[in-house]
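Purpose: get a first structural picture of the assembly so the mutagenesis plan has something to point at.
Setup: two entries, given in the order below. No constraints added.
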Amino acid sequence: MAAGVAAWLPFARAAAIGWMPVANLPMPVAPAEKNKRQDELIVLNVSGRRFQTWRNTLDRYPDTLLGSSEKEFFYNEETKEYFFDRDPDVFRSVLNFYRTGKLHYPRYECISSYDEELAFFGIVPEIIGDCCYEEYKDRKRENAERLMDDQEDNKDAKLPNMTFRETMWRAFENPHTSTMALVFYYVTGFFIAVSVITNVVETVPCGSVPNQKEVPCGERYTVAFFCMDTACVMIFTVEYLMRLFAAPSRYRFMRSVMSIIDVVAILPYYIGLVMTDNEDVSGAFVTLRVFRVFRIFKFSRHSQGLRILGYTLKSCASELGFLLFSLTMAIIIFATVMFYAEKGSSSSKFTSIPASFWYTIVTMTTLGYGDMVPKTIAGKIFGSICSLSGVLVIALPVPVIVSNFSRIYHQNQRADKRRAQKKARLARIRISKTGSSSAFLHSKRNGLFNEALELTGSTEDEKRLSKSTSLLESQHHHLLHCLEKTTVSAHTLELALCHNNILNHEFVDEQYYQQSYLEGGLQNYPSRSPSLSSQDGVTGTCCTRRTKKHHTPLPNASAPAHMQPLTHTHTHPQGLQELSTIHIQPLSTSRSSLNMRVDEPAPLNCQSSQITTAIISIPTPPVTTPEGDAHLPAGPTHQNVVKVSAL
Amino acid sequence: MLNAIWETEGLQTVGIVVLVFASIKLLHLLGLISFSEDSVEDELELSAVRHRPEGLEQLEAQTRFSRKELQILYRGFKNECPSGVVNEDTFKDIYSQFFPQGDASTYAHFLFNAFDTDHNGSVSFEDFVMGLSILLRGTVQEKLNWAFNLYDINKDGYITKEEMLDIMKAIYDMMGKCTYPVLKEETPRQHVEVFFQKMDKNKDGVVTIDEFIDCCQNDENIMRSMHLFENVL
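Result (structure tokens, whole complex):
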């Protein structure tokens, strides 16, 4: 039932009294109107703009957000209104839907934002009224096409494992994918041009032998032209065979237009080879040479404009058909009339109706050769009508074809432009992404500071740090940190016990990842530690390149941290993590300079210039030694863990 | 020889005649001349009938609705008929929306006539509200009176079998085809027979208003159903 007439339901029910005297059976009991309240106004606050409507209006469509109890989630107790943080302009259309029962699509609105709003309010777009539905569908289709275009471009991305055949096919279809393809593309183009020019020049009369008539060049330099022709045909044949080999679906390839053109282009040559000795068919052979001109169509692989033209003609087939049909009709009519009009005049060229066809065509297309001219007055009258109508008949379907061509052409232009811009867009997106990830790694360092400071309660540094990250960011970083801590690898656990190295997985930047990947993973650390004494600290080298990293000496549980030249430690008496940061990066302008006592890095052999290390050492009970001896008793609490991470 | 001359002459005449006709048609198309009066386009637009109801106080006095109820009724009325009056087609349209399975147009036609008390072809808000007042807030006598008025199609004071049959068919039409058990052709007729047997006391083939009211007041079912819709608004 249309909700718009919900207001008339009382009337319909009242009118049912008209059935009562007629009814044989007793009527069912009417539903009790429990909780019948008076209709009240409700206020909908959409991003500050207040809309008011009757509650009953919204109840008309109970399967939408506003009509159901879902809106109670948005009820604001203090202001006694429903607050939606959405676009108020689109909400106007949504509310009008409740009021009038018809959903309208405003033309100035972006289609995807409109769709999103409708989805939010639980309204199905199919109920858009007829007045706006077509516009909506058109816009949606356009948008979908655009998105599809973008997605298609992604398909060009090179798949890592392509067979030779696939590579070849790709090279043929997109010459820009590799240099070889480009070379091939230009070479074939060149030979097509050569072939066409040869065919043309063949017929030009060259200088003649004095006592003979002019001979075309083809007959004078037969051998040269034959060689040229052979060369071109060889190239075309090889190309065709290669394409046939590389095609994913050979049957489909053979049926495609381009391959038919290829075949037609090279076939006359072979037929000619076969039939040269037979004099009778040489006439036919000469005719076959005409087909050589089809080689020029091979250029359509090279020119996008030609392809668009062909596509346009194909898509305007109905208009062209109409043009042809109406022209034919007009030609026949006018030819007949002209023939009978000119029948009387002497020495008339209009000898038959088909003969008059020629006159009609020439007149209707406003060519007017003048080889056939009407001489009688009637003929002249009809002739002028004929030429006027010809102009009209031809002018009518042409704009349709032109507009079609223009639309397709511009679509293509747009697609090309978008593809060109895409690279720049992707680069920008990548930059911003790396920005955010480096922000994490960056602030992780500061985050460590934060936690340490919170533990020690130093306020001034805290203030400095807290300015930098918003609550959202810091929570996000904490989350990533938790993830790091969770992913403990059993393998590294053991190694870490041996080498006091990295205990868990960590987020690192790309550079470091590449390096360590090349080195065979984070886990293969040269074991240098056993030789070191504890005074040197645990040399948990994470990589061979990194030397001179000093680590915290094992602090006694009770002793306060004492500083190494490059370290800064906080010890926490309760056995929580100690944090220390070694700032090694000479180029970094990061906030680790807040670490006051960090000297500028000692010369680093490490070739990666971006490595900053954070060292977390867990204070161990005094029993265990920090030496990099293997077989430390199990349990992370017993180790002196030195974790080196690159930031 | 002469034939040839006549041929050319004839064709010339034909040519000239064609030319003249074509130019006349062209001028006609351009609107410079017109042949007959019928072709002149009717400039008169259908002027929109607009109607404003009487004031709220008057309606309050005339009907048994409260102010609020009248407000609610008017809002619903105006929403569907912005011009202030309902014509028969709109009426049929609205009523049909409540009975999607069947064809409610015939019954809506009778209903329209019942509401349109002054028989001017359109139901204004006053007619509407008066009718509703009787149906929802009236006495049983008034309701029965209204029902009789509905059945009496030609408003002559008698319900004949034909009139009743029309009404019955209209009611059964509203049910539509998909019923269980399937409605047969003679069902309305049988129903009419039953009705007349009950109502027509003096067996004269027509039912008068008094017979009708008497009979209905004696029937418990009907009495009870009269009070069914009292809480509608």
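Residues 319 and 325 of chain A are 10 Å apart (CA to CA).
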